[in-house]
Design goal:
Blueprint lengths: L3 H15 L2 E2 L2 E2 L3 E3 L2 H11 L5 H6 L2 H4 L3 E6 L3 H6 L3 E8 L11 E8 L7
Parallel strand pairs: 3-4
Antiparallel strand pairs: 1-2, 4-6, 5-6
Length: about 120
């Protein structure tokens, strides 16, 4: 479960990103993938959800929009379904009460699928 402070941090980051550009791509033209919510909804409807198919059938693809997400340790999985890391930063490094190694957080992007011709 994400702590309230971390959740607020990511909401703040999302807001900042929406007002600027990330890797020369305007966030306004992208769709944010809320994976836990999407997966939870899918599991409620069908216990045999195929997560890879979820990324192929997103509304962002239908709208020809890129999809972005934030992850820490699952980045290798997201790379297998077409995402690439466009930014990364460490969380916890400057916190004097954090006594573990910093957590590397990655912002990942997946371009929309090209329509078949």
């Amino acid at each position: 479960m994400i702590s309230h402070n971390v959740s607020n941090y990511f909401c703040s980051l999302q807001s900042e990103m929406a007002q600027s550009t990330v890797a020369q791509i305007e966030v306004k033209t992208m769709s944010y993938a809320d994976i836990p919510t999407a997966v939870r909804s899918s599991f409620e409807a069908d216990r045999n959800v195929d997560l890879v198919r979820y990324f192929e059938d997103t509304p962002a693809n239908e709208q020809h929009r890129a999809t972005w997400l934030i992850t820490s340790d699952a980045y290798r999985f997201y790379e297998t379904v077409g995402f690439s890391t466009i930014a990364e930063f460490e969380v916890g490094d400057g916190n004097p009460t954090w006594n573990k190694p910093p957590i590397v957080v990655r912002v990942m992007l997946k371009e929309p699928m090209r329509p078949e011709r």
